[in-house]
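ok, trying the design again with the full structure, not the truncated one.
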């Protein structure tokens, strides 16, 4: 049959599944030029190739089939322009979201990589740390149950935009708690905000850990072992005549949710200090 192509031939020529071509026919998007009444076979003309190319092109741009059908029927250039503008905005939004996800993944990969290479376990060090933005909830936390409730409350009350991401949740203890060796509970929970967009949107509700010098100590093991490392920090601060300027910050970088090997668990404890003269 001259200048006519079966649905199988069209499928091979355009690399489009037969099932897809049949669906296009069902929704009146792209119909065969001729159907054999006896066999039910569909046949297409080479003159329809351009139309199929347009459908494929618009589809790859993310334009819904419903809008493609409308455009093919109306052939209105203004409508096409508006449709493309709308989908351009959608693509930009998706790109921005994927960029944020990429940055989070890169940051977490980098942090896990660094955690596996930590060698100064149990040895206090002084670090200059830039300002960090957090959302913080003042809540007494002394059990896993209270921890999970506080996490949900943190997310609901502050409308945290990104998911609670492993490794970005931490806790604080007051100076009084640590000096009195009271490690039964934390006095607050916080979530580090990674994205500039989130920091801007939550500016009125967020808090900051100020830039400055922090005494830091890493330890491996379970959370219940933390008390001995707080004591090491206190002794180090006293020996060097440093002045404590804020609450103690504790963050599990690797815990039971990331590893089943307790020896791989990694927690960091920090506290801002004034180095003096």
């Amino acid at each position: 049959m001259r200048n006519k192509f079966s649905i199988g031939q069209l499928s091979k020529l355009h690399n489009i599944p037969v099932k897809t071509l049949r669906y296009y026919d069902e929704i009146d998007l792209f119909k065969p030029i001729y159907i054999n009444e006896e066999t039910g076979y569909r046949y297409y003309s080479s003159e329809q190739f351009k139309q199929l190319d347009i459908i494929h092109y618009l589809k790859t741009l993310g334009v819904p089939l419903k809008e493609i059908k409308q455009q093919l029927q109306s052939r209105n250039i203004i409508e096409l322009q508006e449709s493309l503008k709308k989908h351009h905005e959608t693509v930009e939004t998706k790109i921005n979201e994927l960029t944020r996800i990429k940055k989070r993944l890169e940051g977490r990969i980098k942090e896990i990589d660094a955690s596996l290479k930590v060698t100064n376990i149990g040895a206090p060090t002084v670090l200059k740390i830039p300002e960090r933005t957090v959302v913080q909830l003042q809540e007494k936390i002394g059990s896993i149950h209270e921890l999970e409730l506080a996490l949900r409350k943190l997310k609901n009350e502050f409308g945290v935009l990104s998911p609670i991401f492993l490794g970005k949740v931490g806790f604080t203890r007051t100076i009084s708690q640590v000096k009195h060796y009271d490690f039964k509970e934390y006095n607050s929970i916080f979530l580090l905000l990674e994205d500039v967009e989130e920091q801007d949107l939550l500016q009125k509700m967020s808090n900051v850990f100020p830039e400055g010098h922090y005494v830091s100590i890493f330890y491996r093991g379970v959370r219940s072992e933390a008390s001995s490392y707080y004591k090491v920090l206190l002794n180090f601060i006293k020996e060097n005549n440093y002045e404590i300027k804020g609450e103690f910050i504790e963050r599990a970088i690797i815990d039971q949710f990331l590893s089943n090997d307790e020896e791989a668990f990694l927690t960091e404890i920090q506290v801002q200090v004034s180095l003096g003269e």
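Keeping the full-length input from now on. Residues 135 and 204 are 10 Å apart (CA to CA).
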